[in-house]
Description:
Blueprint (H helix, E strand, L loop, with lengths): L14 H10 L4 H13 L7 E3 H12 L7 H10 L6 E3 H12 L3 H12 L6 E3 H16 L1 H4 L4 H11 L7 E3 H6 L1
Antiparallel strand pairs: 1-2, 3-4
Amino acid sequence: xxxxxxxxxxxxxxxxxxxxxxxxxxxxxxxxxxxxxxFNKGGGAGDGKITKEEFRKYYxxxxxxxxxxxxxxxxxxxxxxxxxxxSISFSEFTFAILAQNKTDLDSILSFSFASIDISGxxxxxxxxxxxxxxxxxxxxIGKEEAAEIDSDEVALSIFQEFNLDKSQKMNKEQFIEx
Length: 178
């Protein structure tokens, strides 16, 4: 997943995505591949994306959530529909499910670092961290409440803890230490 997970640029299903989804859900590799193929059909649009309603169906199946009102699914969808076009890609969906299901700290930190490092350069820029914090806030407290948080200020305070300014980058060791 690495640098493609948030951009939705994944045209194929990677072994890493399959392994991560198998470990975090009750889905078999065949079920994951079937789901990926359905995403690529795009609900008939053929663009590899799904709508919020389709997302709710997949979310319930993979997360096993008791989300009768769809609140958790809607918050998760909102966090990953970054361009607000009403759809998300399979890579974005994978990230959403994995972000909800990580339980051990090492997995959470490694997965988070790889997900934040959109450029894939092994470092996290200020803008990458800010974008991640915005998504995490939406997942944790919902879109309306998250809008009240100044992600720029939070990201800056994290960077300042490591004596970094906005033009510098945080490496994986700093991220884990923080």
